[in-house]
Design goal:
By secondary structure, this protein is an alpha+beta fold. It has 3 helices and 22 strands.
Length: 357
C-alpha cells in the first residue's frame, strides 16, 4: 500500500514543482513597463491650413477621490479665416487605484457643460507586483463644439465608488484646421499611452525587470514623399516623464533633455523643429525612457514641402487636369472620329499606290 501511495504522490509533487517553476517565468513575460504599446495613427492627411495644440492651464491634481473635480481652461487661437477640420480633447490620467490595488477609474468629463464620452481609450499598466497602477490617454471628439477662436472649460469628476481615486496629469486640446491663406502641409496625428520604466538599482541592476533598451517606444513612422522638406515641426507629449536622460530619436538623431517640465513636471510637451532630420521614404520617430516612470501619450507631425516648378497645390483644384483630358478621350463618338480619320488615310495610300502602277 505504501508503495502504491508513493507512486501516486510522486507525480503530484513533480507537478507542484513544475508549477512553481513556471509561474515566475510567466509573470516576467507580462511587463507593461516595456515598450509594448506603440502609438497609433488617428489621422494623416494633406491640407492647406495648420495645427493648434494647447494644454491650457493644466496642472497635476494629486489624488482625486470620489466627488472631487478638476478644472482646466483652454483658449483656442487660430486664424479668423480658418475652418475647423476636426478637434480633439485628450484626458491624461494616471495612478488609478483603490487603496493599494490598481483599478481603472470612473471619470465624468464635461466640455463647456456638455457631458462627453471618450471616442478612444488608450491605457497601460505594469501588470505585476506592487505599484501596478494603470494610466491612460482618453480621446474625445469635440469637432462639433469648437468652431474657431474662443475659450473652453473642461471639468473632470471622479464618479467612482467611495475609496476609488486617480490623478490628473492634464488636459490637451488639439485643432486641425483648413485655411486658404495658410500653408500646404501634410500632417500625422498619433495617439496612445505606453507606460515605460527602466529604473536601475544603485548596483545598476534592473529594478522592474526592464532595461533602457526595452523601453524605446515607437511614436510614429511617417513616410515622406520625394522632394525637399521646407519645414517640419514635431509635438511630443509625455506624461510623468520629467527626467533629463529620457530622449527623442528621429532617425539617427537623438535629443536628450526633452522632458524638462514644460509646461509642468507631470506633462511634458516638447515642440521641435526636425526639418533637417527627416528623409524621403519611411522615417522612424521614437521615445526612450532612461530611468523612472514615463508615459508617451502623443506625437503630432506637420511637414511643409518645397514647391517645385509646375507643381500644383494639393489644396487647390487644378483647372486643367489629367482626368479632364481622359474624359475628352473617353467621350462618346471620339472612337468614331479616330476610326474615320484612319480610313481616309488608308484610302489615300491605296489610291496613290494604284496610280503609281
Amino acid at each position: 500500500m505504501l508503495k502504491n501511495l508513493k507512486k501516486a504522490i510522486t507525480p503530484m509533487l513533480l507537478g507542484i514543482l513544475l508549477c512553481m517553476l513556471v509561474i515566475p517565468a510567466t509573470a516576467q513575460e507580462i511587463n507593461g513597463y516595456t515598450a509594448d504599446k506603440p502609438l497609433t495613427t488617428y489621422q494623416h492627411d494633406s491640407i492647406r491650413g495648420g495645427l493648434f495644440y494647447t494644454t491650457g492651464d493644466s496642472y497635476y491634481s494629486g489624488k482625486l477621490h470620489t466627488g472631487d473635480t478638476y478644472t482646466v481652461y483652454h483658449m483656442v487661437d487660430i486664424p479668423e479665416s480658418a475652418v475647423v477640420k476636426f478637434a480633439r480633447l485628450y484626458n491624461y490620467w494616471t495612478w488609478g487605484a483603490k487603496g493599494t490595488t490598481g483599478i481603472y477609474p470612473t471619470i465624468s468629463l464635461t466640455f463647456d457643460g456638455i457631458i462627453l464620452s471618450p471616442e478612444i481609450e488608450y491605457d497601460d499598466r505594469k501588470g505585476w507586483g506592487i505599484y501596478d497602477y494603470p494610466g491612460g490617454t482618453w480621446a474625445y471628439d469635440i469637432t462639433d463644439y469648437v468652431d474657431g477662436i474662443g475659450s473652453h472649460t473642461v471639468v473632470i469628476e471622479n464618479t467612482g465608488p467611495d475609496g476609488d481615486f486617480f490623478c490628473m496629469d492634464g488636459i490637451g486640446l488639439l485643432v486641425v484646421y483648413t485655411d486658404e491663406t495658410g500653408k500646404d502641409i501634410e500632417y500625422w496625428i498619433n495617439e496612445g499611452c505606453d507606460i515605460l520604466n527602466s529604473q536601475m538599482e544603485d548596483d545598476v541592476t534592473s529594478l522592474y525587470e526592464t532595461s533602457p533598451e526595452e523601453t524605446v517606444t515607437e511614436m510614429m513612422t511617417p513616410t515622406i514623399s520625394d522632394g525637399i522638406i521646407k519645414a517640419a515641426t514635431l509635438w511630443t507629449i509625455i506624461q510623468s516623464g520629467n527626467w533629463d536622460a529620457n530622449n527623442l530619436q528621429v532617425n539617427d538623431m537623438i535629443w536628450t533633455g526633452i522632458c524638462d517640465g514644460t509646461p509642468h513636471p507631470d506633462l511634458d510637451v516638447d515642440v521641435r523643429d526636425i526639418t533637417g532630420y527627416l528623409v524621403s521614404g519611411t522615417n522612424s520617430i521614437r521615445f526612450q525612457a532612461v530611468g523612472d516612470y514615463a508615459a508617451p501619450s502623443g506625437s503630432f507631425l506637420v511637414v511643409e514641402m518645397e514647391a517645385t516648378t509646375g507643381e500644383i497645390s494639393m489644396s487647390v483644384e487644378p483647372e486643367n487636369t489629367v482626368e479632364a483630358t481622359s474624359e475628352t478621350k473617353d467621350s462618346p463618338g471620339f472612337e468614331a472620329v479616330t476610326m474615320f480619320g484612319s480610313l481616309l488615310v488608308t484610302t489615300f495610300l491605296i489610291s496613290r499606290r494604284y496610280r503609281e502602277r
